[in-house]
Amino acid sequence: MKNKYFKPRRVLDFSPHPYDLGIFTGLKEGSEDHHFLSKLWEMPEQEYDRYDQRHLNYFLQKQPEGEQEFFSFGWAITQRRLKHYEDQPPFASEHAKYMHRIEKLILFQQYLRSIDQWNTGRTKDEIIADKEGEIRSLKELSCPGIFLSKYNVRK
After folding, report:
1. Which residues, in sequence order, are CB contacts of 5 under 8 Å at separation 6+?
2. Closest CA to 36 of 88, 83, 73, 11
3. Span 125-142, mean pLDDT?
4. Does the reported pTM lie above 0.85?
5. What is the mean pLDDT of the chain?
6. Can you give the residue ranges of every domain in the chain?
């Protein structure tokens, strides 16, 4: 798969942008998802937005209407890697490293959920529950006191 989602490091660039992916010889084709996640392991949570934006802006230069595609790709690689680490045996010698990576992936997923405009990372049940909550809030705003509980008990 040819990289189209992530901003690669230029070949022989010894002062690359900290969010660009690859090594001094560039970004090896087919390993962009690994490089993206490898940087994520070491990154503080406060940088997720800037990191994601850097790569999104790179992608949008080529695909101006591709924000949802970029988001879905990022969500998918995060899900796949999370499943991979969760499937590792708990007594493996690298268990502590796997747990750290799972924690980072969960934090990144939380960030992704916070910017998810397309409900990519949510189950149907979560979407329905949110919509029901919105409906209840709107009804409460338009008719205060009518819906006091989830059982629609009137005053």
Report:
1. 32, 55, 58, 59, 70, 73, 74
2. 73
3. 79
4. no
5. 87
6. 1-121, 123-155
Structure tokens at 3: 């990289």
Express each pLDDT in 106-115 by its tens digit: 999 999 999 9
Strands (E) in the chain, as ranges, are none
DSSP string, 68-102: HHHHHHHHHHHHHHHHHHHTS-TTSTTHHHHHHHH
Tell me, what's the pLDDT at 59? 96
Structure tokens, 130: 């949110």
Nearest to 84 by CA among 60, 102, 64: 102
Q: Maximum CA pair distance of the chain?
A: 73
Locate tokens 């690859």: which residue? Answer: 22
Residues in the chain, overall count: 155
